[in-house]
Design brief:
The complex is a heterodimer of chains A (about 250) and B (about 250). Chain A is an alpha/beta fold and about 250 residues long. Chain A contains 9 helices and 10 strands. The N and C termini of chain A lie far apart (about 45 Å). In chain A, about 45% of the residues are buried. Chain B is globular and about 75 Å long. Chain B is mostly helical. The mean pLDDT of chain B is about 90. Chain B is built from 10 helices and 2 strands, in the order H-H-H-H-H-E-E-H-H-H-H-H. The longest helix of chain B is centred in the N-terminal third of the chain and has 36 residues. Classes of the chains: A alpha/beta (about 250), B mainly alpha (about 250).
């Protein structure tokens, strides 16, 4: 069964995940259409980040199914490289490679993993760093960049693989308010260009603005979901209401 | 010969003071000591490279999913760390060496497959390698798992992650410890004396046995090691500086 763009690009069905005795995901289902931006919000420890990490096959799931472009992610025969070309991920702590310059961070994976032509990748890396507004910082090392700048290098690094889906795991949580803006601006541009984005975030204002769908998770289940207008205006579940009342 | 002034000076020095630097003015002693010095340098360099390779490979195998691979590496470390290097050298040369096949040389004599120099290389490399495995492991463990995950999410497989991300970062963390162990290795090459490898101590011993100038030769020996180890430490420190992560620390 070949995947076509009118089917969900990411599809989770009844995903269960436990770390030892602690059940983190207790049957999570969600679909993301191509070009859509969805935000997953919820209190800490509700399994948001784990869900993203499962989609990227960084952690295995216990039961259920996750497909990306029709490909089952937790198939033992899965070609992980093929999956990771499609799915880019940006982390809370940037996780840049500190021994490589910004430019090298962006270039490394396409050159060493995809064996693409170095000159061509270099051009693309310059273009991507310009796109995330880091022109002139190509030769700087991660230790010499601010948090917001590092995070934008991380976004450019993920984009260098030409992914179809981008996962953002609380990417502004470690940043000071000033630099949060620059990072969010970059993400918004991506979303507007039609990149499929899955965000785990605590930036409610941003989520309301950018998301096509909002999912609220609590204790391993999706409690409530809907387009941002409905979601923020008329949340029905008491847990959602309580959460929103605390942060809005 | 532009060095003749030095030989004349050493002879004059001997007449004046009784301090007998035969390894300066006597060409036979000079050659012996030079050969010993070079053998120590070769032995050190070969063991240095091999022990670092053993360390890298061992640390890689320690991260294996197979429990027996990890146990074998652990056994290797325990064996070489908990036994004296001199005993190891004897074990390899006399015990293992005597079990190895021999071949007939051009004089019709039976000769062992591996000579004493090779056994010294094997023994000392595994000895220092055992410590290097532990040193590299500590460096590898200092690399944050989140950095490894970032590499994984970019499609790196385990070997690529190890080669391009983990090792370069681990190296930086463990260079000071590695430095210490390699300094020890250079000094431990003197043990090869015990299986008659003609390294510097062995040659010096021959000189002072023939010329009865023990204090002079021993003093020279000490300075020669200070020089050799100093060179190594200087090189390692330069390397450390060159590898420093920009934007971190001092």
């Amino acid at each position: 069964m070949a995947w076509t763009p009118d089917q969900p690009i990411v599809s989770c069905k009844e995903v269960h995940k436990a770390f030892g005795a602690v059940e983190v995901l207790k049957g999570v289902s969600l679909d993301v259409a191509k070009g859509e931006t969805i935000c997953v919000i919820g209190p800490s420890g509700s399994g948001k980040s784990t869900l993203l990490r499962c989609i990227n096959a960084l952690v295995p799931i216990n039961s259920g199914s996750i497909t990306v472009e029709g490909q089952e992610v937790h198939d033992p025969k899965l070609d992980k490289l093929a999956l990771r070309r499609k799915v880019g991920m940006v982390f809370q702590q940037y996780n840049l490679f500190p021994h490589k310059s910004a430019l090298q961070n962006v270039m490394m994976a396409p050159v060493t993993v995809l064996k693409q032509d170095k000159a061509e990748v270099e051009q693309r890396a310059y273009r991507l760093l310009k796109k995330v507004r880091l022109e002139g910082k190509e030769q700087a090392y991660p230790g010499e960049l601010s948090g917001g700048q590092q995070q934008r290098v991380a976004i450019a690094r993920a984009l260098a693989m030409n992914p179809d889906v981008m996962l953002f795991d609380e990417v502004t949580a470690a940043l000071d308010p000033e630099t949060v803006k620059e990072v969010l601006l970059t993400i918004r541009e991506l979303a507007e260009e039609g990149m499929t984005c899955l965000l785990v975030t605590h930036e409610m204002g941003f989520a309301r603005e950018i998301a096509d769908m909002i999912y609220f998770t609590d204790r391993g289940v999706i409690v409530e979901s809907g387009p941002p207008k409905d979601f923020f205006a008329s949340a029905k579940d008491p847990r959602t209401k309580e959460f929103l009342s605390q942060i809005l | 010969m532009e060095w003749s002034w030095a030989f004349d000076w050493a002879r004059e020095f001997y007449r004046e003071t009784g301090i007998n630097l035969t390894f300066v003015y006597d060409s036979f002693d000079r050659d012996r000591l030079a050969r010993g010095f070079m053998n120590t340098v070769y032995l050190s360099l070969i063991c240095l490279v091999l022990s670092v390779l053993i360390g890298i490979a061992g640390a890689w195998l320690q991260g294996s999913k197979l429990v027996w691979t990890r146990r074998i590496v652990q056994g290797y470390i325990q064996f070489f760390r908990n036994t004296p290097p001199l005993v190891q050298l004897y074990f390899f040369f006399f015990a293992v060496g005597s079990l190895m096949p021999t071949y007939e040389n051009r004089f019709g004599m039976q000769e062992p497959m591996l000579d004493n120099f090779t056994w010294a290389v094997i023994s000392l490399s595994f000895f220092a390698g055992a410590f290097n495995v532990e040193i590299f492991r500590s460096g590898i463990e200092a690399v944050p798992t989140s950095t490894v995950e970032a590499a994984e999410s970019l499609g790196y497989n385990r070997l690529q992650t190890y080669r391009y991300i983990v090792l370069p970062l681990a190296f930086r963390v463990c260079l000071p410890a590695l430095n210490n162990n390699l300094v020890n290795l250079v000094k431990t090459t003197t043990l090869a004396y015990a299986i008659a490898v003609p390294e510097m101590l062995y040659m010096a011993n021959q000189i002072w046995s023939d010329s009865v100038n023990v204090p002079e030769t021993m003093t020279f020996l000490l300075f020669a090691y200070v020089f050799l180890v100093g060179l190594l430490v200087w090189a390692m420190h330069s390397w450390e500086r060159a590898m420093r992560l920009p934007g971190y620390g001092r």
